[in-house]
């Protein structure tokens, strides 16, 4: 079974408001083994909303509306759903009485436009909303001979979420056949998306019952697997079987087999080996340390380090010889090497990592004036010696800084394998 979520509200078509309800609703529907195939955001226009509802009813088993159940002229969800279904609205006298009592209790006069909140789709069940004036609605019907479930929910999350939990879950459970969705997530760093797909497509195409999605973002590739079966154990066994074959193919490129972040994996590997880490950062300005310290318990393995943005602090905090900076430039392999060696000696860490580079938007100065934006050097020092990696990262300042930390974390991970 598939579902479609329709979020009503012109404000969500602006840069100032996001539809977050659909994330919650997707999670809830997935728990019933229902995949959300479509999400639609529609402005406060009756023609547009009716059209979206008609399309949704033609292709989805479950259609969930959020928002547009208020008392104002631009609250049009009830009317649009009725038009799309070809059924009338009826005014519920009990709801009308409850609305009047709600306003009286607050000492506010109820204006006539509030009465529309008592309009209910013919045949629908009213879902009480203790947190607001707009009641929800639940309708199990048929469209063109196919069964359909239509749910109308208020827009404010503080109303929608408890209403769904209290009134919609048990109704869905009574109607839907037992079905569970299982998921797996594999993550790989610093590998081209095309290369991942070329190597894995021959494998995942043998599993047409599993939805496979490849996503590329922030210096990593994610492989998402999802399937449904009558039991969670059956579904999980199926996605695990595929994930294990993909892991075997991609080998050490996979840094996470259950969704862990790269920094989590690095800290876990340090812990398993009873090692500690320190960092000296120039162009990333502490971003690497921030990523590591965002993980609970990181203090056991990440000792700290220094943000050595100026040349003077490279010397003061990491003992980089001034003549090396003057001769090679702060953005150079010799300085990266000296930073890693120096911060390791200063902190007593098992492993030290250093990052120095030109993040832009302007060029470097002094000895670095002719060096290109995106030139980054990373060095790693441990008991085996010190290795330096030269990078040329494309993009703006934020992308260069993030990718530099991604390369640094991956260099640590590879050194620990």
Characterization of the model:
There is one protein chain. The strands form 4 sheets. The chain has a 6-stranded mixed beta sheet with strand order 2-1-3-8-7-6, with helices on both faces. Strands 14-13-15-16-17 form a 5-stranded mixed beta sheet, with helices on both faces. The mean pLDDT is 96. The chain has 3 domains: 2-175, Molybdenum Cofactor Biosythetic Enzyme, Chain A; 180-256, Alpha-Beta Plaits; 262-416, Maf protein, CATH 3.90.950.20. The chain is an alpha/beta fold and 417 residues long. Helix 2 packs across helix 3 (77-85) and helix 8 packs parallel to helix 13. The protein has helices at residues 21-31, 46-59, 77-85, 93-105, 157-175, 193-204, 232-250, 262-272, 287-293, 311-318, 322-328, 333-347, 397-416; strands spanning 2-8, 35-42, 62-66, 89-91, 119-121, 125-127, 136-143, 146-153, 180-189, 211-217, 220-229, 254-256, 277-281, 302-307, 351-357, 375-382, 385-392. The protein contains 13 helices and 17 strands. The chain is 40% helix and 26% strand. The longest helix is centred in the C-terminal third of the chain and has 20 residues, at 397-416.
Q: Tell me, rounded to a whole number, the average pLDDT.
A: 96
Gross geometry: elongated
Q: For the record, what is the CATH homologous superfamily label of the largest domain?
A: MoaB/Mog-like domain
Percent helix among the residues? 25-40%
- Which sequence of strands runs across the widest sheet? 2-1-3-8-7-6
CATH class category of the largest domain: Alpha Beta
Rg calc:
29 Å
Based on secondary structure, the structural category is alpha/beta
Second CATH tier, the architecture of the largest domain: 3-Layer(aba) Sandwich
Taken as a percent bin, the fraction of beta residues is: 25-35%
Distance between the termini: 43 Å
The structural domain count equals 3
CATH topology type of the largest domain = Molybdenum Cofactor Biosythetic Enzyme, Chain A
Order of helices and strands: EHEHEHEHEEEEHEHEEHEHEHEHHHEEEH
Count of extended strands: 17
**What kind of sheet is the major sheet?**
6 strands, mixed
Q: What is the number of helices?
A: 13
Unreliable runs: none
């Amino acid at each position: 079974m598939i579902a479609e979520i329709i979020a009503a509200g012109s404000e969500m078509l602006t840069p100032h408001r996001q539809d977050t309800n659909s994330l919650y609703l997707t999670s809830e529907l997935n728990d019933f083994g229902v995949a959300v195939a479509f999400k639609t955001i529609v402005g406060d226009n009756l023609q547009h909303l009716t059209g979206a509802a008609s399309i949704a009813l033609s292709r989805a088993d479950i259609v969930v509306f959020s928002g547009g159940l208020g008392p104002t002229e631009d609250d049009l969800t009830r009317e649009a759903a009725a038009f799309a279904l070809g059924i009338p609205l009826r005014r519920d006298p009990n709801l009308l009485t409850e609305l009047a009592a709600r306003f009286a209790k607050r000492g506010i006069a109820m204006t006539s436009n509030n009465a529309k909140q008592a309009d209910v789709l013919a045949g629908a069940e009213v879902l009480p909303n203790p947190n607001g004036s707009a009641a929800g609605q639940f309708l199990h019907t048929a469209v063109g001979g196919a069964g359909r479930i239509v749910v109308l929910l208020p827009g404010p999350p503080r109303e929608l979420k408890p209403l769904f939990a209290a009134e919609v879950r048990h109704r869905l459970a009574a109607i839907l056949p037992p079905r569970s969705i299982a998921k797996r997530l594999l993550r790989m760093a610093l590998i081209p998306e095309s290369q991942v797909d070329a190597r894995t497509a021959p494998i995942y195409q043998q599993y047409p019952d599993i939805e496979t999605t490849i996503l590329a973002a922030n210096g990593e590739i994610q492989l998402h697997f999802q399937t449904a079966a009558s039991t969670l154990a059956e579904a999980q066994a199926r996605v695990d079987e595929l994930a294990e074959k993909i892991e075997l193919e991609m080998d050490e490129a996979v840094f996470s087999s259950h969704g862990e972040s790269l920094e989590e994996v690095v800290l876990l590997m340090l812990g398993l080996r009873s090692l500690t880490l320190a960092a000296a950062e120039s162009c990333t300005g502490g971003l690497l340390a921030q990523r590591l310290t965002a993980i609970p318990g990181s203090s056991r393995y990440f000792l700290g380090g220094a943000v050595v943005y100026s040349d003077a602090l490279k010397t003061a905090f990491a003992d980089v010889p001034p003549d090396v900076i003057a001769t090679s430039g702060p953005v150079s392999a010799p300085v990266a090497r000296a930073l890693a060696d120096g911060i390791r000696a200063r902190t007593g860490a098992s492993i030290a990592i250093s990052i120095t580079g030109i993040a832009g938007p302007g060029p470097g100065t002094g000895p670095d004036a002719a060096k290109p934006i995106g030139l980054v050097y990373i060095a790693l020092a441990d008991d085996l010696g010190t290795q330096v990696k030269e990078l040329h990262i494309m993009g703006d300042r934020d992308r260069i800084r993030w990718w530099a930390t991604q390369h640094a974390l991956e260099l640590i991970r590879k050194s620990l394998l």
